[in-house]
Amino acid sequence: MINEALQALKEALGEKYVLANSEDLKRYNWGDIPQDRGIAAAVLPHTVEEIQGIVRVANELQIGLYPISTGNNWGYGAARPVTDNNIIVDLQRMNQIIEVNTELAYAVIEPGVTQLQLFNYLKEHNIPLFIDPTGAGPNCSLLGNMVERGYGITPYGDHFLSQCGMEVVLADGEVLRTSFGHYDNAKATYTFKWGVGPYVDGLFTQSSFGIVTKIGLWLMPKPEHFEACYFTANEDRALGDLIDAVRTMLLHGVVKSSINLLHRNRALTLLTQYPWSEMNGKVPLSAEVADRLAKQRKIGAWNCVAALYGTREQVSAAKKGIKKLLSGKVSRINFISEFTLRLLERYKGFFSIVTGMNVPELIKVIRPSMRILQGVPNEVALATPYWRMKKVPPEKDRNPAKDNCGCIWLSPVIPMTKEYVQDFRSFVEPLFRQHGFDCCITLTTVTHRSFDCTIPILYDRDDSEDSVRADACYQAVLRACMEKGYIPYRFGIQSMAELAGRNDPFWNTVEKLKAALDPNRILSPGRYSRL
Ligand code: ADP
Question: Strand 39-43 to strand 225-233: parallel, antiparallel, or no bridges (unpaired)?
């Protein structure tokens, strides 16, 4: 059957774009979670018509297709399909920026368009718009992240909220256009999200109902003034007050970006690697060593970042509001503008003496972290997956999957109060410790009312025993989160069957939709759906 399919696909796409030998398919099993998948083949279409041809073949021969955009879904399975024996539909060649509308601040893009590509396009054409980059790095697709309902940190950080107008190839080969895109001459397809009639775009996110081939994406106008705001609490017990302040900042509109609260352990993963020799090869990191490493780098118990955009007056008002809300609650607040950064860079030696900090090392993280807030994708967050690896992360071109880093992401959502966060930490942190892993929490304000708590389980994928322990830790933490009601906003491929297998009206309805839209179950088998 597969040979017949490959023959038909080669005729439709050309030999070059149908990969079937194991060497070519290796990259689809690179890195991240411990589980590999058997992959039948990969095809690299270039047009919607070619995708329609692929779908036709899959229906005739009953073969599963697994569309990916750039396949960097790191920590959740990377490029791997949920089930074995799928043909990966790798959309990296469909990488056209179809339109950028400067006045209305949106772009229309294909799946293979990467964060770096759109950023470069805007820069080269002098277009004063920002993309909202994720920490996953320059070579990740914008569309792929939106389809997973991922997020960044600027005010356009909810990527599904910023999407407007979609083109989708359905399992029967029909091409569906949303918003007003299905009306000839429609003018507002990329400016009015809801269209008319039932709103269906959500059906094509976190689902197995279609292959998304084009989206509109709203972009943020470059502000007159920008400052990054870093605030730190040295004591862990300050977290409750910080949470109250952060929620007030958002609900009252003092800050319009998301706010990230990084636990000490998470901050350490950005700046260094696991201190194997100091720990005599033991895991997890002891409190004493963690404290020492943190003190050397002036990392607090909680390290927070927000971004301020607007006119000079707006930014200045926001700074006042932040200072007032954080008064007496933090050990330090720093506002860093372009000017301050340049000053720091020029007089690093002087500032190191005055502040007692290693300013050059600090700048290495501050500069790229500020750039992300200004729409410049980079690799600063990609140090984290290398934490427990025994090899040093490359200075550039970091690819945790290719480097076989062990990283399993968990992303439970927590209502934004100190009581809920305390409750969450009370069972999650001991579970990490028991399994020998460091609990590296980041709390990101994904709405004004909830945190997404992204916690990676960082392990050494080159060590099979560590992989087994990492999987056991993941299963235990996920189970506890589900039982206690802190449900992740997104799941890795290893947990889809359990997620969608539940016999409840929600997943039963998803099943009915699947049966109606994809009766032969050829699209993304098992992805947020039953097998
Ligand atoms: P990124 O490289 O941006 O992280 P991926 O390409 O890995 O994103 O996409 C994340 C997940 O979203 C994939 O595993 C796949 O299941 C789904 N996906 C990606 N692109 C599409 C698409 N164009 N149509 C349908 N599903 C997609």
Answer: unpaired
Look-up: residue for tokens 């990609």? 382
Distance CA 435, CA 359 (A): 35
> What beta strand segments (E) does 224-353 contain?
225-233, 260-263, 302-310, 332-336
Pocket of ligand 1 (CB under 6 A): 67-73, 91, 111, 136, 140-141, 143-145, 147-148, 211-212, 524, 527
Residues 6+ apart with CB under 8 A from 394: 403
144 close to 68: Cβ distance less than 8 angstroms: yes
Q: Which two tokens stand for residue 248?
A: 């007030």
**Ligand 1 atom with the shortest distance to the CA of 213:** 23
End-to-end CA distance of the chain: 20
**Residue 361 CB neighbours (<10 A):** 16
Q: Cα 490 to the chain's mean position, in Å?
A: 10
What pLDDT was estimated at residue 463? 92
**HSE of 282, CA atoms in CB hemisphere, 13 A:** 9
Q: Is the pLDDT of residue 359 over 90?
A: no
- How many of the other CB atoms lie within 10 Å of CB of 212? 24
The DSSP bridge partners found for residue 453 are 443
pLDDT digits (tens, 9 = 90+) for 463-480: 999 999 999 999 999 999
Q: Measured in angstroms, how far is the CA atom of residue 391 from the centroid of ligand 1?
A: 29
Residue 87 · residue 5 · CB < 8 Å: yes
The one-character DSSP state at 356 is: -
What residues are paired with 120 via a beta bridge?
none
Read off the tokens for 408: 């399993």
d(CA 227, CA 225): 7
- Name the phi and psi angles at 101, rounded to 5: -105, 105
Could you tell me the CA-to-CA distances from 312 to 227, 366, 372 in Å, in that order? 10, 21, 20
State the chain's mean pLDDT as an integer: 95
What is the rounded average pLDDT of the residues 229-235? 96
Across 148-156, average pLDDT = 96
DSSP annotation of 202 reads: G
The mean-pLDDT minimum among 111-115, 328-332, 339-343, 358-362 falls in 358-362
Task: State the sign of the Cα–Cα–Cα–Cα dihedral 254, 256, 261, 267.
Answer: negative
Contacts of 280 (CB under 8 A, 6+ apart): none
Query: From atom 21 of ligand 1, which residue's Cα is the shortest distance away?
Result: 68
